[in-house]
Design goal:
alpha+beta; 4-stranded antiparallel β-sheet; globular
């Protein structure tokens, strides 16, 4: 089973990263941020999006939009396997 998710790419405020990718769940018109990943650059971002199920044409389109402005978004059909990978890499809660 898979679901459609929105991914928002923005400049990272955390160095040395270039991008911040936010995985958003849309529910009743609202978007809830579920996961934030920090990425080093275009190649890192492309691999991340591909792992989530995005195709090459969509990834190139997002990169073109992103370099023309600060923020870009795309819809991705994230598989259960990809969600498991995200869950394993999720930051642990601090006590």
């Amino acid at each position: 089973m898979s679901q459609d998710w929105k991914i928002r790419i923005q400049p990272a405020e955390l160095k040395p990263y270039e991008f911040k990718a936010t995985l958003l769940l849309r529910s009743k018109g609202d978007a809830t941020a579920l996961e934030v990943s920090y990425l080093y650059g275009d190649g890192d971002l492309a691999v991340f999006l591909e792992d989530l199920g995005a195709g090459a044409p969509e990834i190139w389109g997002l990169l073109e939009k992103l370099h023309g402005r600060q923020t870009a978004e795309m819809m991705v059909e994230v598989t259960d396997e990809a969600m498991e990978v995200l869950a394993r890499h999720a930051p642990r809660a601090q006590a």
